[in-house]
Protein backbone atom coordinates (compact mmCIF):
# COMPACT_ATOMS: atom_id res chain seq x y z
CA UNK A 1 0.00 0.00 0.00
CA UNK A 2 1.27 3.53 -0.72
CA UNK A 3 2.65 5.61 2.13
CA UNK A 4 0.20 8.33 3.17
CA UNK A 5 0.87 11.86 4.37
CA UNK A 6 -1.37 14.61 5.77
CA UNK A 7 0.30 17.55 4.07
CA UNK A 8 -2.84 19.62 3.50
CA UNK A 9 -3.88 19.30 7.13
CA UNK A 10 -0.35 20.04 8.31
CA UNK A 11 0.25 23.11 6.14
CA UNK A 12 -3.28 24.56 6.34
CA UNK A 13 -4.71 23.48 9.71
CA UNK A 14 -7.17 26.41 9.69
CA UNK A 15 -8.90 24.70 6.75
CA UNK A 16 -8.97 21.13 8.08
CA UNK A 17 -11.01 19.57 10.88
CA UNK A 18 -9.69 16.15 12.00
CA UNK A 19 -12.53 13.65 11.70
CA UNK A 20 -13.32 9.99 11.28
CA UNK A 21 -15.73 8.14 9.04
CA UNK A 22 -18.86 6.55 10.42
CA UNK A 23 -18.90 2.93 11.55
CA UNK A 24 -21.21 1.23 9.09
CA UNK A 25 -22.96 -2.06 9.91
CA UNK A 26 -21.97 -4.17 6.91
CA UNK A 27 -19.58 -2.44 4.47
CA UNK A 28 -18.48 -4.28 1.32
CA UNK A 29 -16.88 -3.33 -1.98
CA UNK A 30 -19.54 -3.07 -4.70
CA UNK A 31 -17.24 -2.04 -7.57
CA UNK A 32 -13.50 -1.49 -7.71
CA UNK A 33 -11.37 -0.20 -10.58
CA UNK A 34 -8.59 -2.80 -10.44
CA UNK A 35 -6.50 -1.10 -13.13
CA UNK A 36 -6.64 2.21 -11.27
CA UNK A 37 -5.78 0.46 -8.01
CA UNK A 38 -2.62 -0.95 -9.61
CA UNK A 39 -1.74 2.46 -11.07
CA UNK A 40 -2.04 3.98 -7.61
CA UNK A 41 0.04 1.26 -5.95
CA UNK A 42 -2.77 -0.52 -4.08
CA UNK A 43 -3.28 -4.27 -3.97
CA UNK A 44 -6.83 -4.77 -5.24
CA UNK A 45 -7.43 -7.86 -3.11
CA UNK A 46 -6.34 -6.00 0.02
CA UNK A 47 -8.77 -3.18 -0.81
CA UNK A 48 -11.56 -5.79 -0.88
CA UNK A 49 -10.51 -7.17 2.52
CA UNK A 50 -11.99 -6.05 5.83
CA UNK A 51 -8.98 -3.78 6.49
CA UNK A 52 -9.18 -2.28 3.02
CA UNK A 53 -12.91 -1.64 3.34
CA UNK A 54 -12.40 0.14 6.65
CA UNK A 55 -9.94 2.48 4.94
CA UNK A 56 -12.33 3.02 2.03
CA UNK A 57 -15.13 4.05 4.39
CA UNK A 58 -12.94 6.24 6.60
CA UNK A 59 -13.51 4.32 9.81
CA UNK A 60 -9.82 3.36 9.94
CA UNK A 61 -7.46 5.76 8.12
CA UNK A 62 -3.97 4.56 7.17
CA UNK A 63 -1.40 4.48 9.93
CA UNK A 64 0.23 7.83 10.61
CA UNK A 65 -2.46 9.92 8.93
CA UNK A 66 -5.34 11.99 10.22
CA UNK A 67 -8.39 12.18 7.98
CA UNK A 68 -9.91 15.65 7.79
CA UNK A 69 -13.01 17.45 6.57
CA UNK A 70 -11.85 20.34 4.40
CA UNK A 71 -13.17 23.87 4.79
CA UNK A 72 -14.16 25.93 1.77
CA UNK A 73 -16.69 28.56 0.77
CA UNK A 74 -18.52 28.94 -2.52
CA UNK A 75 -21.07 30.54 -4.77
CA UNK A 76 -23.89 28.05 -5.27
CA UNK A 77 -26.13 29.03 -8.18
CA UNK A 78 -24.78 32.56 -7.77
CA UNK A 79 -25.45 32.86 -4.03
CA UNK A 80 -22.44 33.11 -1.73
CA UNK A 81 -22.04 30.78 1.24
CA UNK A 82 -19.03 31.67 3.43
CA UNK A 83 -18.77 28.23 5.06
CA UNK A 84 -19.54 25.08 3.10
CA UNK A 85 -16.86 22.45 3.52
CA UNK A 86 -16.93 18.65 3.38
CA UNK A 87 -20.28 17.96 4.99
CA UNK A 88 -20.28 14.28 4.03
CA UNK A 89 -16.72 13.66 2.94
CA UNK A 90 -13.21 13.16 4.27
CA UNK A 91 -9.75 13.74 2.89
CA UNK A 92 -7.92 10.60 3.99
CA UNK A 93 -4.57 12.02 2.96
CA UNK A 94 -2.06 12.33 0.14
CA UNK A 95 0.11 9.62 -1.39
CA UNK A 96 2.44 9.14 -4.34
CA UNK A 97 1.27 6.80 -7.11
CA UNK A 98 3.45 4.44 -9.15
CA UNK A 99 4.26 7.22 -11.65
CA UNK A 100 5.47 9.59 -8.94
CA UNK A 101 2.36 11.79 -8.95
CA UNK A 102 0.93 13.13 -5.70
CA UNK A 103 -2.73 12.17 -5.27
CA UNK A 104 -5.53 12.69 -2.75
CA UNK A 105 -7.72 9.88 -1.47
CA UNK A 106 -11.09 11.38 -0.63
CA UNK A 107 -14.24 9.65 0.62
CA UNK A 108 -17.76 10.81 -0.24
CA UNK A 109 -20.69 9.67 1.90
CA UNK A 110 -18.51 8.67 4.86
CA UNK A 111 -20.76 10.28 7.47
CA UNK A 112 -21.73 13.58 9.00
CA UNK A 113 -18.97 16.13 9.72
CA UNK A 114 -19.03 19.54 11.44
CA UNK A 115 -19.75 21.06 8.01
CA UNK A 116 -22.87 18.94 7.44
CA UNK A 117 -25.35 21.62 8.54
CA UNK A 118 -28.77 19.95 8.11
CA UNK A 119 -27.44 17.09 5.99
CA UNK A 120 -27.12 13.48 7.11
CA UNK A 121 -23.58 13.06 5.78
CA UNK A 122 -24.52 9.97 3.79
CA UNK A 123 -24.75 8.97 0.13
CA UNK A 124 -26.88 6.49 -1.76
CA UNK A 125 -25.60 3.78 -4.09
CA UNK A 126 -27.13 5.27 -7.26
CA UNK A 127 -25.40 8.67 -7.28
CA UNK A 128 -22.08 7.12 -6.26
CA UNK A 129 -22.29 4.60 -9.10
CA UNK A 130 -23.12 7.48 -11.45
CA UNK A 131 -19.90 9.24 -10.47
CA UNK A 132 -17.96 5.98 -10.82
CA UNK A 133 -19.30 5.42 -14.35
CA UNK A 134 -19.13 8.97 -15.67
CA UNK A 135 -15.71 9.84 -14.24
CA UNK A 136 -14.36 6.59 -15.70
CA UNK A 137 -15.79 7.56 -19.09
CA UNK A 138 -14.33 11.06 -18.88
CA UNK A 139 -10.88 9.62 -18.20
CA UNK A 140 -11.17 7.30 -21.19
CA UNK A 141 -12.23 10.28 -23.34
CA UNK A 142 -9.03 12.08 -22.36
CA UNK A 143 -10.70 14.76 -20.24
CA UNK A 144 -8.93 15.78 -16.99
CA UNK A 145 -10.96 14.35 -14.14
CA UNK A 146 -10.99 13.08 -10.62
CA UNK A 147 -11.05 9.27 -10.66
CA UNK A 148 -13.32 6.83 -8.86
CA UNK A 149 -11.41 4.01 -7.21
CA UNK A 150 -14.31 2.18 -5.58
CA UNK A 151 -17.91 2.27 -4.43
CA UNK A 152 -18.48 0.57 -1.07
CA UNK A 153 -21.95 -0.34 0.15
CA UNK A 154 -22.49 0.42 3.83
CA UNK A 155 -25.32 -1.88 4.89
CA UNK A 156 -27.19 1.23 6.04
CA UNK A 157 -30.23 2.78 4.40
CA UNK A 158 -30.28 6.45 3.40
CA UNK A 159 -33.47 8.47 3.49
CA UNK A 160 -34.13 10.61 0.41
CA UNK A 161 -37.54 10.63 -1.28
CA UNK A 162 -37.51 6.98 -0.23
CA UNK A 163 -35.18 4.65 1.66
CA UNK A 164 -32.15 3.80 -0.48
CA UNK A 165 -29.12 1.59 0.12
CA UNK A 166 -26.13 3.63 1.30
CA UNK A 167 -22.63 3.80 -0.19
CA UNK A 168 -19.28 5.54 0.05
CA UNK A 169 -17.33 6.63 -3.03
CA UNK A 170 -13.53 6.51 -2.84
CA UNK A 171 -12.32 9.31 -5.10
CA UNK A 172 -8.78 10.07 -6.24
CA UNK A 173 -7.69 13.54 -7.36
CA UNK A 174 -4.62 15.62 -8.05
CA UNK A 175 -5.97 17.57 -5.08
CA UNK A 176 -9.25 18.90 -3.73
CA UNK A 177 -8.19 22.56 -3.82
CA UNK A 178 -11.03 24.63 -5.26
CA UNK A 179 -11.94 28.20 -6.09
CA UNK A 180 -14.03 27.92 -2.93
CA UNK A 181 -10.88 27.14 -0.93
CA UNK A 182 -9.48 30.55 -1.84
CA UNK A 183 -12.80 32.21 -1.15
CA UNK A 184 -12.79 30.71 2.34
CA UNK A 185 -9.21 31.82 3.05
CA UNK A 186 -9.94 35.35 1.80
CA UNK A 187 -13.08 35.59 3.94
CA UNK A 188 -11.08 34.91 7.11
CA UNK A 189 -9.18 38.16 6.56
CA UNK A 190 -5.94 36.28 7.25
CA UNK A 191 -3.54 37.25 4.44
CA UNK A 192 -0.95 34.76 5.72
CA UNK A 193 -3.45 31.91 5.35
CA UNK A 194 -4.31 33.06 1.82
CA UNK A 195 -0.60 33.20 0.95
CA UNK A 196 0.09 29.75 2.41
CA UNK A 197 -2.84 28.35 0.44
CA UNK A 198 -1.50 29.89 -2.77
CA UNK A 199 2.01 28.57 -2.03
CA UNK A 200 0.51 25.12 -1.42
CA UNK A 201 -1.35 25.30 -4.76
CA UNK A 202 1.78 26.41 -6.62
CA UNK A 203 3.87 23.58 -5.18
CA UNK A 204 1.15 21.02 -5.81
CA UNK A 205 -0.10 21.97 -9.27
CA UNK A 206 1.64 24.87 -10.96
CA UNK A 207 5.32 24.93 -9.86
CA UNK A 208 6.32 27.06 -12.86
CA UNK A 209 4.48 29.97 -11.21
CA UNK A 210 7.14 30.06 -8.50
CA UNK A 211 9.70 31.16 -11.09
CA UNK A 212 7.69 34.24 -12.03
CA UNK A 213 8.39 37.68 -10.57
CA UNK A 214 4.65 37.76 -9.81
CA UNK A 215 4.04 34.14 -8.69
CA UNK A 216 0.46 34.59 -7.45
CA UNK A 217 -0.72 36.37 -10.55
CA UNK A 218 0.99 33.68 -12.59
CA UNK A 219 -0.76 31.00 -10.53
CA UNK A 220 -4.08 32.64 -11.31
CA UNK A 221 -3.28 32.75 -15.04
CA UNK A 222 -2.34 29.07 -15.03
CA UNK A 223 -5.66 28.17 -13.40
CA UNK A 224 -7.43 30.31 -16.03
CA UNK A 225 -5.63 28.42 -18.80
CA UNK A 226 -6.36 25.01 -17.26
CA UNK A 227 -10.05 25.77 -16.85
CA UNK A 228 -10.37 27.23 -20.35
CA UNK A 229 -8.98 24.01 -21.82
CA UNK A 230 -11.10 21.82 -19.54
CA UNK A 231 -14.41 23.51 -20.34
CA UNK A 232 -13.58 23.46 -24.06
CA UNK A 233 -13.14 19.68 -23.76
CA UNK A 234 -16.53 19.43 -22.00
CA UNK A 235 -18.20 21.35 -24.80
CA UNK A 236 -16.52 19.34 -27.52
CA UNK A 237 -17.73 16.02 -26.12
CA UNK A 238 -21.20 17.29 -25.16
CA UNK A 239 -20.76 17.01 -21.39
CA UNK A 240 -23.00 19.00 -19.05
CA UNK A 241 -21.59 19.34 -15.54
CA UNK A 242 -24.87 20.50 -14.06
CA UNK A 243 -23.60 22.20 -10.89
CA UNK A 244 -20.74 24.56 -11.73
CA UNK A 245 -20.61 26.22 -8.32
CA UNK A 246 -17.28 27.79 -7.35
CA UNK A 247 -16.68 25.00 -4.83
CA UNK A 248 -16.83 22.59 -7.79
CA UNK A 249 -14.06 24.26 -9.80
CA UNK A 250 -10.61 22.86 -9.09
CA UNK A 251 -7.28 24.65 -9.07
CA UNK A 252 -5.72 21.64 -10.82
CA UNK A 253 -8.04 21.81 -13.84
CA UNK A 254 -9.68 18.43 -13.16
CA UNK A 255 -13.42 17.83 -13.45
CA UNK A 256 -14.91 17.29 -9.99
CA UNK A 257 -18.29 16.39 -8.51
CA UNK A 258 -20.41 14.30 -10.85
CA UNK A 259 -23.77 15.10 -9.30
CA UNK A 260 -26.53 16.03 -11.78
CA UNK A 261 -24.19 15.59 -14.76
CA UNK A 262 -25.24 14.25 -18.15
CA UNK A 263 -24.32 14.19 -21.84
CA UNK A 264 -26.13 15.86 -24.71
CA UNK A 265 -28.45 13.67 -26.71
CA UNK A 266 -29.76 15.94 -29.49
CA UNK A 267 -27.74 19.11 -29.93
CA UNK A 268 -29.43 22.00 -28.15
CA UNK A 269 -27.31 24.64 -26.34
CA UNK A 270 -30.07 25.43 -23.84
CA UNK A 271 -30.17 21.83 -22.57
CA UNK A 272 -30.50 21.46 -18.80
CA UNK A 273 -30.97 18.09 -17.12
CA UNK A 274 -30.38 19.00 -13.47
CA UNK A 275 -33.55 19.03 -11.37
CA UNK A 276 -32.15 21.82 -9.19
CA UNK A 277 -31.18 24.16 -12.06
CA UNK A 278 -34.62 25.62 -12.65
CA UNK A 279 -33.25 28.85 -14.17
CA UNK A 280 -30.86 27.13 -16.56
CA UNK A 281 -27.79 28.81 -15.07
CA UNK A 282 -25.64 25.77 -15.83
CA UNK A 283 -27.12 24.85 -19.22
CA UNK A 284 -24.73 23.28 -21.74
CA UNK A 285 -24.25 26.52 -23.69
CA UNK A 286 -23.70 28.59 -20.54
CA UNK A 287 -20.70 26.63 -19.31
CA UNK A 288 -17.94 28.84 -20.82
CA UNK A 289 -19.35 32.13 -19.43
CA UNK A 290 -20.01 30.49 -16.06
CA UNK A 291 -16.40 29.29 -15.94
CA UNK A 292 -15.29 32.87 -16.63
CA UNK A 293 -17.60 34.11 -13.84
CA UNK A 294 -16.19 31.56 -11.40
CA UNK A 295 -12.64 32.60 -12.27
CA UNK A 296 -13.57 36.22 -11.57
CA UNK A 297 -14.52 35.10 -8.06
CA UNK A 298 -11.09 33.44 -7.74
CA UNK A 299 -9.47 36.69 -8.85
CA UNK A 300 -11.39 38.59 -6.18
CA UNK A 301 -10.26 36.15 -3.53
CA UNK A 302 -6.61 36.45 -4.59
CA UNK A 303 -6.49 40.26 -4.93
CA UNK A 304 -4.41 40.84 -1.76
CA UNK A 305 -1.68 38.64 -3.27
CA UNK A 306 -1.51 40.55 -6.56
CA UNK A 307 -0.64 43.98 -5.17
CA UNK A 308 -0.92 45.94 -1.92
CA UNK A 309 -2.59 48.71 -3.92
CA UNK A 310 -6.14 47.44 -4.50
CA UNK A 311 -6.62 49.49 -7.66
CA UNK A 312 -3.48 48.01 -9.19
CA UNK A 313 -4.48 44.53 -8.01
CA UNK A 314 -7.87 44.85 -9.74
CA UNK A 315 -6.20 46.05 -12.93
CA UNK A 316 -3.82 43.08 -12.93
CA UNK A 317 -6.61 40.61 -12.14
CA UNK A 318 -8.74 41.98 -14.97
CA UNK A 319 -5.89 41.69 -17.48
CA UNK A 320 -5.23 38.10 -16.43
CA UNK A 321 -8.91 37.14 -16.38
CA UNK A 322 -9.24 38.45 -19.94
CA UNK A 323 -6.93 35.63 -21.04
CA UNK A 324 -9.80 33.16 -20.57
CA UNK A 325 -11.73 34.03 -23.74
CA UNK A 326 -8.84 33.67 -26.19
CA UNK A 327 -7.59 30.53 -24.42
CA UNK A 328 -11.05 28.94 -24.58
CA UNK A 329 -11.54 29.93 -28.24
CA UNK A 330 -8.16 28.47 -29.18
CA UNK A 331 -8.81 25.17 -27.36
CA UNK A 332 -12.34 24.85 -28.78
CA UNK A 333 -11.26 25.69 -32.34
CA UNK A 334 -8.39 23.21 -32.29
CA UNK A 335 -10.65 20.56 -30.78
CA UNK A 336 -13.29 21.20 -33.44
CA UNK A 337 -10.64 20.95 -36.16
CA UNK A 338 -9.85 17.46 -34.91
CA UNK A 339 -13.52 16.49 -34.57
CA UNK A 340 -14.11 17.55 -38.18
CA UNK A 341 -11.04 15.64 -39.38
CA UNK A 342 -9.45 18.77 -40.85
CA UNK A 343 -5.69 18.94 -41.49
CA UNK A 344 -3.28 20.90 -39.33
CA UNK A 345 -2.80 24.41 -40.64
CA UNK A 346 -6.45 24.89 -41.59
CA UNK A 347 -7.36 28.54 -41.08
CA UNK A 348 -9.02 29.08 -37.70
CA UNK A 349 -11.65 31.31 -39.24
CA UNK A 350 -12.63 28.58 -41.68
CA UNK A 351 -12.77 26.02 -38.87
CA UNK A 352 -15.10 28.19 -36.81
CA UNK A 353 -17.35 29.00 -39.76
CA UNK A 354 -17.76 25.38 -40.87
CA UNK A 355 -18.23 24.20 -37.26
CA UNK A 356 -20.82 26.84 -36.43
CA UNK A 357 -22.80 26.05 -39.59
CA UNK A 358 -22.75 22.37 -38.65
CA UNK A 359 -23.96 23.05 -35.10
CA UNK A 360 -26.83 25.19 -36.40
CA UNK A 361 -27.76 22.38 -38.78
CA UNK A 362 -27.65 19.85 -35.94
CA UNK A 363 -29.75 22.06 -33.68
CA UNK A 364 -32.39 22.79 -36.32
CA UNK A 365 -32.76 19.12 -37.25
CA UNK A 366 -32.40 17.89 -33.64
CA UNK A 367 -29.55 15.54 -34.52
CA UNK A 368 -27.78 13.38 -31.97
CA UNK A 369 -24.53 15.15 -31.06
CA UNK A 370 -22.23 12.14 -30.56
CA UNK A 371 -23.30 9.94 -33.46
CA UNK A 372 -23.42 12.85 -35.94
CA UNK A 373 -19.75 13.66 -35.44
CA UNK A 374 -18.78 9.98 -35.45
CA UNK A 375 -20.49 9.31 -38.80
CA UNK A 376 -20.32 12.81 -40.22
CA UNK A 377 -20.59 12.24 -44.00
CA UNK A 378 -23.72 10.10 -43.64
CA UNK A 379 -25.61 12.15 -41.05
CA UNK A 380 -25.78 15.51 -42.83
CA UNK A 381 -28.29 16.27 -45.59
CA UNK A 382 -26.99 19.77 -46.36
CA UNK A 383 -25.08 19.35 -49.64
CA UNK A 384 -23.66 22.88 -49.55
CA UNK A 385 -22.17 22.21 -46.13
CA UNK A 386 -20.81 18.85 -47.20
CA UNK A 387 -19.21 20.37 -50.31
CA UNK A 388 -17.57 23.15 -48.26
CA UNK A 389 -16.35 20.63 -45.67
CA UNK A 390 -14.88 18.30 -48.30
CA UNK A 391 -13.14 21.26 -49.90
CA UNK A 392 -11.12 21.53 -46.65
CA UNK A 393 -9.73 17.99 -47.27
CA UNK A 394 -11.01 16.12 -44.17
CA UNK A 395 -9.55 12.76 -43.11
CA UNK A 396 -12.36 10.36 -42.18
CA UNK A 397 -10.09 7.91 -40.35
CA UNK A 398 -8.60 10.73 -38.29
CA UNK A 399 -12.10 11.91 -37.45
CA UNK A 400 -13.02 8.50 -36.05
CA UNK A 401 -10.01 8.47 -33.78
CA UNK A 402 -11.25 11.69 -32.15
CA UNK A 403 -15.03 11.26 -31.99
CA UNK A 404 -16.21 8.59 -29.56
CA UNK A 405 -18.42 5.70 -30.55
CA UNK A 406 -19.52 5.13 -26.96
CA UNK A 407 -20.30 7.59 -24.19
CA UNK A 408 -22.34 7.03 -21.01
CA UNK A 409 -25.60 7.96 -22.71
CA UNK A 410 -28.19 9.10 -20.23
CA UNK A 411 -30.71 6.34 -20.89
CA UNK A 412 -27.97 3.69 -20.57
CA UNK A 413 -26.70 5.15 -17.29
CA UNK A 414 -30.21 5.17 -15.86
CA UNK A 415 -30.76 1.59 -17.00
CA UNK A 416 -27.48 0.47 -15.43
CA UNK A 417 -28.24 2.23 -12.13
CA UNK A 418 -31.71 0.73 -12.01
CA UNK A 419 -30.50 -2.83 -12.61
CA UNK A 420 -27.20 -2.48 -10.73
CA UNK A 421 -25.41 -4.07 -13.71
CA UNK A 422 -22.79 -1.65 -15.02
CA UNK A 423 -20.30 -4.18 -16.43
CA UNK A 424 -21.23 -4.01 -20.12
CA UNK A 425 -21.57 -0.23 -20.04
CA UNK A 426 -18.10 -0.02 -18.47
CA UNK A 427 -16.74 -2.32 -21.20
CA UNK A 428 -18.05 0.07 -23.85
CA UNK A 429 -16.95 3.37 -22.33
CA UNK A 430 -13.48 2.16 -21.28
CA UNK A 431 -12.54 2.09 -24.99
CA UNK A 432 -14.81 4.76 -26.45
CA UNK A 433 -13.22 5.17 -29.87
CA UNK A 434 -13.11 1.54 -31.03
CA UNK A 435 -16.24 0.05 -32.59
CA UNK A 436 -16.79 -3.50 -31.36
CA UNK A 437 -19.36 -6.19 -32.20
CA UNK A 438 -21.97 -6.86 -29.56
CA UNK A 439 -22.00 -3.27 -28.30
CA UNK A 440 -24.30 -1.80 -30.95
CA UNK A 441 -26.96 -0.66 -28.49
CA UNK A 442 -24.38 1.40 -26.59
CA UNK A 443 -23.79 3.53 -29.70
CA UNK A 444 -27.45 4.16 -30.45
CA UNK A 445 -29.08 7.54 -29.69
CA UNK A 446 -31.64 7.82 -26.91
CA UNK A 447 -35.13 6.50 -27.60
CA UNK A 448 -37.50 9.03 -29.14
CA UNK A 449 -38.88 11.37 -26.50
CA UNK A 450 -36.46 10.26 -23.76
CA UNK A 451 -34.81 13.65 -23.31
CA UNK A 452 -38.06 15.59 -23.11
CA UNK A 453 -38.65 14.65 -19.49
CA UNK A 454 -35.23 13.42 -18.38
CA UNK A 455 -33.84 14.89 -15.14
CA UNK A 456 -30.75 14.22 -13.07
CA UNK A 457 -30.41 14.74 -9.34
CA UNK A 458 -27.55 15.83 -7.10
CA UNK A 459 -27.94 12.92 -4.66
CA UNK A 460 -27.92 14.93 -1.42
Secondary-structure map:
Layout: E1 4-5, H1 7-11, E2 16-18, E3 28-32, H2 34-40, H3 44-48, H4 50-57, E4 68-70, E5 74-76, E6 79-81, E7 89-96, E8 102-108, H5 125-140, E9 147-159, E10 163-173, H6 179-187, H7 191-204, H8 215-237, E11 239-240, E12 262-263, H9 287-306, H10 310-321, H11 324-339, H12 348-365, H13 369-374, H14 376-379, H15 383-390, H16 396-402, H17 410-419, H18 423-429
Antiparallel strand pairs: 1-7, 2-4, 3-9, 5-6, 7-8, 8-10, 9-10, 11-12
Helix pairs in contact: 6-7, 6-9, 8-9, 8-10, 8-11, 9-10, 11-12
Low-confidence stretches: none
Structural class: alpha+beta
Strand share of the residues?
Answer: 5-15%
Task: Profile the largest sheet.
Answer: 6 strands, antiparallel
Would you report the number of β strands? Answer: 12
Question: What is the gyration radius calculated from CA atoms?
Answer: 22 Å
Spatial sequence of strands, sheet with the most strands: 1-7-8-10-9-3
Question: Please, what is the average pLDDT?
Answer: 95
List SSEs in N-to-C order. Answer: EHEEHHHEEEEEHEEHHHEEHHHHHHHHHH
Shape: globular
Whole-number total of structural domains: 2
Percent helix among the residues? 40-55%
Distance between the termini: 32 Å
Task: Please tally the helical runs, counting DSSP H or I stretches of 4 or more residues.
Answer: 18
Provide structural commentary.
It is a single chain. By secondary structure, the chain is of the alpha+beta class. It has helices at residues 7-11, 34-40, 44-48, 50-57, 125-140, 179-187, 191-204, 215-237, 287-306, 310-321, 324-339, 348-365, 369-374, 376-379, 383-390, 396-402, 410-419, 423-429, and strands spanning 4-5, 16-18, 28-32, 68-70, 74-76, 79-81, 89-96, 102-108, 147-159, 163-173, 239-240, 262-263. The chain has 2 domains: 4-173, no CATH class; 177-460. The protein is built from 18 helices and 12 strands. Strands 1-7-8-10-9-3 form a 6-stranded antiparallel beta sheet, sandwiched between helices. The chain has a two-stranded antiparallel sheet with strand order 2-4. Strands 5-6 form a two-stranded antiparallel ribbon. Helix 6 runs parallel beside helix 9 (287-306), helix 8 (215-237) runs parallel beside helix 10 (310-321) and helix 11 crosses helix 12. The longest helix has 23 residues, at 215-237. The protein starts with a strand and ends in a 31-residue tail after the last helix. The relative contact order is 0.11. The mean pLDDT is 95.
Amino acid sequence: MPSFDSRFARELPEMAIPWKGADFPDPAVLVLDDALAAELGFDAEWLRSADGVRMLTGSEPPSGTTAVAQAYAGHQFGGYSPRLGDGRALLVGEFTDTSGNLRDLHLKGSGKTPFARAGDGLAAVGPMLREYVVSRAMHALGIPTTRSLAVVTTGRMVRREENLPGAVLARVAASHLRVGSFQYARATGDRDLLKRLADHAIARHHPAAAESDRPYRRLFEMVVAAQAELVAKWMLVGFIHGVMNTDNMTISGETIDYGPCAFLDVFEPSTVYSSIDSGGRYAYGNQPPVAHWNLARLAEAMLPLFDDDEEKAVEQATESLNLFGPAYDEAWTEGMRLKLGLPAGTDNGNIRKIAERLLIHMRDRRLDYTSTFRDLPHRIDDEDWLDDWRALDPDIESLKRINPMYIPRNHLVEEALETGDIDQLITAIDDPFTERPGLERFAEPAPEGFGACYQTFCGT
